[in-house]
Amino acid sequence: MQNIYDNPTFFDGYKRLRERTDNANVLFETPALLSLLPDLTGKAVLDLGCGAGDHCVEFVRRGASRVLGIDISEKMLALARDKNADARVEYRHLPMEELDALEGPFDLIASSLAMHYVADFAAVAGQAHRLLGAGGLFVFSQEHPLTSCFTTGERWTKDEAGNKLWANISNYSVDGERLSSWFVDGVKKYHCTFSTIVNTLVDAGLYRGEADRARARRGHAGGVPGPVEGPAA
Ligand SMILES: C[S@@+](CC[C@H](N)C(=O)[O-])C[C@H]1O[C@@H](n2cnc3c(N)ncnc32)[C@H](O)[C@@H]1O
Fold first, then answer.
1. Residues 88 and 167 in one domain
2. The pTM of the whole model exceeds 0.85
3. 43, 65, 86, 162: least surrounded by Cβ within 10 Å?
4. Is 78 part of any domain?
């Protein structure tokens, strides 16, 4: 497994990007992820790839009684302990590949933009399922598969002036390792198609709660719904 965030050049570049107020985390990812969270009052939370711990302290602000943030990068953890220290948050050096070292149960397992660094998503999903208590939730974000798939050719189609018109995709249907350049060359990420992501979650048992809720709603409405009325002819 690669620990690219401890590369000094990568770390400095990422830290500068993350400190901006117009990065994708601030504009898109964090609001979307937080909007999916349940009430965290008194809950135990595990954050996979917690980075500088911004989400860990947000979970505490939302009422969590205990948060464990794990990360593979000592530099990111040092930043978290410096910037986001809280008596209810523990930051621990542990790769996601070694979740068998942890004991649950957790009420929420969250992960922001870290899952695409893991080669064996099925193993992490299986461990997440083991670590969740009854009614627990696994909420995560990752790099979009239409982005992570890119392998060969020109990344961008540009106009004559060199302006980017659109991003190109390649090898979408081939899951697996990709090497990219982001602050440094040789950054390893792992592409999964949407169907791989969904099927992996289903196989790990992480979709069960959603199916149960769908049944409950239907029952509550008074049985199997009839045909939908179309517009009057
Ligand atoms: C894009 S940063 C996101 C940090 C944080 N979740 C956030 O949203 O601010 C990805 C983080 O995942 C961590 N990471 C990458 N591979 C990991 C692994 N195998 N196990 C644990 N953490 C990992 C990196 O060190 C980095 O801190």
1. no
2. yes
3. 162
4. yes
Indicate whether 47 and 68 sit together in one domain.
yes
Where in the sequence is the domain holding 166, given as residue range(s)? 146-188
Judge whether 4 lies within some domain: yes
Strands 106-111 and 132-140: parallel
Mean pLDDT by 10 residues, the chain (233 residues): 96 94 90 94 98 98 98 98 98 98 97 97 98 95 94 91 94 94 94 93 79 43 46 47
Same domain? For 88 and 174 the reply is no
Query: Which residues approach ligand 1 with their CB closer than 6 A?
Result: 1, 5, 25, 49-52, 54-55, 71-73, 76, 95-97, 112-114, 117-118
**Closest-lying ligand 1 atom to the alpha carbon of residue 51:** 27
Q: Tell me if 28 is assigned to some domain.
A: no
In a domain, 115, yes or no: yes
